[in-house]
């Protein structure tokens, strides 16, 4: 979920220097905020067990986290509209440092929150952490775009976003091991959250030190900040804002309750630690789909080469997921336990369907969005009304088809806006607030009718995305 700057002027020294090391550093930022965001999916069932929370109250974790995206983005939009871009004035390098500091502070606050065992304290720490991630979203993407030749900016951004997904793939496994095994002594308590989040906080501070020391280019945006929210005159922008709200809300809500779903006896009856491991297949599917989407929607003209490269990428991505999910821990000792490949037959089938969906999409964002949204609706219905491995893998397969939705919606929503592009981008980023609204609603529904049937709520989100892919994205210029 990344906001991409539209026009960037690069200093003369940028083309003359090699920015490989700075790009590696910035790319790790994408990895870390992907990792820390998905840690919420491990955190929710843990806090729910410790504080004996209802599904609704447990989902307030996502409300606090993604609510920060809305509040910080809204403040940023108003300041930019009336006073000028604050990060452009502060400097994008300093903007990244501010974001990293807030992330580190939010992580460190988990220690006193665990010591006092106050749920509201945890939510406050998450809000500060998410505020830092929001600032990183605003500041780090422009750096990723300019660290090299302009002609390859899109390639670099796709690569950075792929590492963001790699972070979301690793987080459930590493987070589950740290929280439920390494630092828990076999008991579920808030104390087991202290050291993992201290480690995360230290990583953010080390990253800040690295960013401070490396040379990063200076640049400025050539777009004028427009006042009066004139981008709202465009129908496809307004409908696109709703689409971003629906997508983020649906994606976050599904991920938030997967571990609880996997624990149901009629599904798989998995423990929370085991569920966290399988959650990596959900986010690993998103990683796979994003890499495939970068190729499918890219500029490679030869279809045979494109499809072969996609196939090889899918195989490589699966190998990464397979070995990551084979990590085990016993009494603090790590070892590998490879899963029998025949147990992954459903996942292979889903990967094949995902590959075929890309071929049907034909490198067209709107068509691909429609096809993928239809697939998710079908998978959600399967989750809600079937049992056992069928429902289990249908839930995991949603990650494969969620993969390209953000980029496709975002691209369609800012098309042909000219000088209003930057303003529309800010408005779209605000709609990440869907991740704060939809999970508590599904939590309340789960309390009322059960966790499995509650997955009917995200169906409404993806039905809207079908509409946006078919009709909502069409540009109707406002009357002057």
Automatic annotation (TrEMBL):
GO terms for molecular function: transmembrane transporter activity. It is a multi-pass membrane protein. InterPro entries: MFS, MFS_trans_sf, MFS_TsgA-like. SUPFAM superfamilies: MFS general substrate transporter (SSF103473). The chain crosses the membrane at residues 21-39, 59-79, 91-112, 118-141, 162-183, 195-216, 237-259, 279-300, 307-324, 344-362, 369-387, 393-414, 426-445, 451-470. It is found in: Cell inner membrane. Pfam families: MFS_1. It comes from the Bacteria. Keywords: Cell membrane, Membrane, Transmembrane, Transmembrane helix. GO terms for cellular component: plasma membrane. PANTHER family: L-FUCOSE-PROTON SYMPORTER, PROTEIN TSGA. This is Glucose/galactose transporter family protein. It comes from Fulvivirga imtechensis AK7.
């Amino acid at each position: 979920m990344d906001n991409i700057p539209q026009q960037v002027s690069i200093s003369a020294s940028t083309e003359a220097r090699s920015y490989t090391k700075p790009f590696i550093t910035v790319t790790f930022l994408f990895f870390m905020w992907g990792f820390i965001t998905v840690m919420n999916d491990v955190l929710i069932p843990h806090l729910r067990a410790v504080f004996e929370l209802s599904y609704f109250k447990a989902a307030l974790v996502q409300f606090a986290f993604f609510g920060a995206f809305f509040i910080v983005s809204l403040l940023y939009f108003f300041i930019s509209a009336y006073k000028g871009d604050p990060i452009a004035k502060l400097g994008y390098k300093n903007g990244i440092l501010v974001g990293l500091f807030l992330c580190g502070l939010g992580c460190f606050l988990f220690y006193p929150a665990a010591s006092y065992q106050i749920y509201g304290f945890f939510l406050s720490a998450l809000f500060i952490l998410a505020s830092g991630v929001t600032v990183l979203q605003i500041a780090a993407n422009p750096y990723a775009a300019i660290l090299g030749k302009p002609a390859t900016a899109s390639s670099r951004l796709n690569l950075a976003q792929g590492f963001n997904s790699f972070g979301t793939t690793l987080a459930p496994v590493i987070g589950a091991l740290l929280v439920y095994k390494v630092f828990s002594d076999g008991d579920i308590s808030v104390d087991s959250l202290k050291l993992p989040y201290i480690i995360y906080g230290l990583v953010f501070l080390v990253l800040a030190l690295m960013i401070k020391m490396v040379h990063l280019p200076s640049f400025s945006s050539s777009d004028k900040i427009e006042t009066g929210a004139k981008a709202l005159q465009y129908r496809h922008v307004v409908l696109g804002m709703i689409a971003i709200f629906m997508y983020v809300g649906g994606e976050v809500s599904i991920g938030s309750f997967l571990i609880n779903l996997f624990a149901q006896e009629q599904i798989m009856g998995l423990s929370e630690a085991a569920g966290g491991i399988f959650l990596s297949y959900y986010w690993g599917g998103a990683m796979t789909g994003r890499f495939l989407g970068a190729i499918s929607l890219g500029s490679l003209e030869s279809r045979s080469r494109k499809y072969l490269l996609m196939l090889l990428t899918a195989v490589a991505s699966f190998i990464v997921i397979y070995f990551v999910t084979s990590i085990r821990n016993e009494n603090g000792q790590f070892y590998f336990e490879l899963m029998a490949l025949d147990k992954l037959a459903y996942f292979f089938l889903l990967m094949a369907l995902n590959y075929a969906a890309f071929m049907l999409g034909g490198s067209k964002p709107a068509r691909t969005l429609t096809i993928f949204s239809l697939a998710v609706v079908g998978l959600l219905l399967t989750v809600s009304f079937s049992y056992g491995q069928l429902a289990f893998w249908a839930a995991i397969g949603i990650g494969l088809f969620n993969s390209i939705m953000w980029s496709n919606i975002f691209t369609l929503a800012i098309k042909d806006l000219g000088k209003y592009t930057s303003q529309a981008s800010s408005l779209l980023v605000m709609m990440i607030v869907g991740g704060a609204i939809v999970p508590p609603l599904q939590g309340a529904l789960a309390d009322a009718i059960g966790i499995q049937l509650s997955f009917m709520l995200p169906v409404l989100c993806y039905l809207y995305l079908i509409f946006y892919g078919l009709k909502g994205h069409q540009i109707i210029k406002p009357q002057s």
